């Protein structure tokens, strides 16, 4: 990929983050939730406005962390600020049992997997993060005797 396209991609990702640290999938989420009342269908929920998701936020942390390792000189302060806000969002969204709710898949294990990968990419681990320790307890408490 041409470097200019790579930089454009990073700039796009940075532009999608909202003030609360979350990330949408297509464009910045600026519409009001009440607009969902205008949804003309009964079977497609939450399709009228752009929403922000744990999965896209955590995935972008991973992407930008890898990018920073490969290209440490480009938008360093902006990327670090993005990651810090996104990590704060992930930490604040953690459920009391240590899990996260996933919107795109099989709910809690799926959402927790995304959040944990994002946190790990940001340098969080059991030694420096209470959030990650809570994740570990959640995963161990839900593991079956068969290992699944």
TrEMBL record:
GO cellular component term, pick one: lipid droplet
Family annotation (InterPro entries): SQ_cyclase_C, Squalene_cyclase, Terpene_synthase_CS, Terpenoid_cyclase/PrenylTrfase
One Pfam short name: SQHop_cyclase_C
Squalene cyclase C-terminal domain ranges (all copies): 8-148
Gene Ontology terms, MF aspect: intramolecular transferase activity
Stated family: Belongs to the terpene cyclase/mutase family.
Protein name, as recorded: Squalene cyclase C-terminal domain-containing protein
Species assigned in the record: Kingdonia uniflora
